[in-house]
Design goal:
alpha/beta, 5-stranded mixed β-sheet, 9 helices, globular
Length: about 220
């Protein structure tokens, strides 16, 4: 399982908008199957507390709008099912992992992708495009999501995908599905590099995502 080509494994790229005060107020999920965007999903979520004005300025979601939706916690069964089918991914796994663990500490029994066999009770391990790009491309001026998209010439592709998949008013940075698509494009871009295409096993991605240098040289 862990040594197989990454395209043979379902990867779910997640992005959450929110804060510790409000909880998750929007989620976006990109289903990467066969190394391509196969499906997407997104929803606003009722806040568990106040949405501070400074947070609203970032993600553009107001309390009145969000209150019309279900709490993020009501989606537990769905996220467990995703985790059973594959691996979670994010750009900066620590942020997304904190959001999901603050809502649900652990899932029930799910596949142990780190070991490559057996089961575990954890949302991870995560594929992390932030860690991947820091390892593969050291010395860049910025590893912010938007900056990486521009650095590697993915902006036009991102805009096209956002127009296809994102709600009309949520086609910009700091919108959950838009950011999840951006992170997905960073992951799929790696395989277009001659140096990467034969190395991208699940084990390799997870090692670099955790900051563990693989035995083989990157280039």
């Amino acid at each position: 399982m862990d040594g197989t080509d990454w395209k043979s494994t379902h990867i779910y790229m997640l992005d959450f908008e929110g804060s510790p005060a409000s909880g998750v107020v929007e989620y976006g999920v990109v289903h990467l199957i066969g190394g391509q965007i196969n499906a997407t999903e997104t929803s606003l979520c009722r806040p568990t507390g106040s949405i501070h004005s400074r947070d609203r300025e970032v993600h553009g979601i107001g309390e009145t709008e969000a209150m019309a939706h279900e709490l993020f916690s009501s989606h537990y069964a769905h996220f467990v099912e995703l985790r059973r089918k594959g691996i979670f991914a994010a750009h900066n796994r620590h942020a997304e992992n904190s959001f999901i663990k603050n809502t649900w500490a652990v899932p029930p029994v799910v596949p142990d992708w780190r070991a490559g066999f057996g089961t575990s009770q954890e949302w991870g391990p995560w594929v992390d495009t932030l860690s991947l790009y820091k390892s593969i491309f050291p010395g860049l001026d910025s590893y912010g999501l938007g900056d990486l998209v521009k650095t590697f010439g993915l902006q036009q592709q991102l805009e096209a995908a956002a127009n296809e998949y994102c709600p009309q008013k949520r086609r910009k940075p700091h919108c959950a599905l838009y950011d999840a698509i951006a992170s997905s494009l960073l992951l799929t871009y790696l395989e277009s590099l001659d140096e990467m295409c034969d190395r991208m096993s699940i084990r390799w991605l997870l090692q670099l995502s955790q900051g563990i240098e693989p035995q083989q040289e990157l280039f």
